[in-house]
Amino acid sequence: MENWICVTCGMQYPQSETPPSECPICLDQRQYVGYNGQQWTTLAAMKVDGYHQVVKEHEPGLIGIGSEPSFAIGQRPLLVQTGEGNILWDCMAFLDDEIVSTIQQHGGLKAIAISHPHYYTTMVEWAERFDVPIYLHESDRQWVMRPSEHIVFWSGETRPLVGDATLIRLGGHFRGGQVLHWSAGAEGKGVLLSGDIIQVVSDRNWVSFMYSYPNLIPLPGYEVARIRDAIAPYQFERLYGAWFERVVASDARNAVIRSADRYILALEHPLT
Question: How far is the CA of 54 from the CAs of 31, 75, 200, 235, in angstroms?
Answer without folding.
Answer: 26, 12, 21, 30
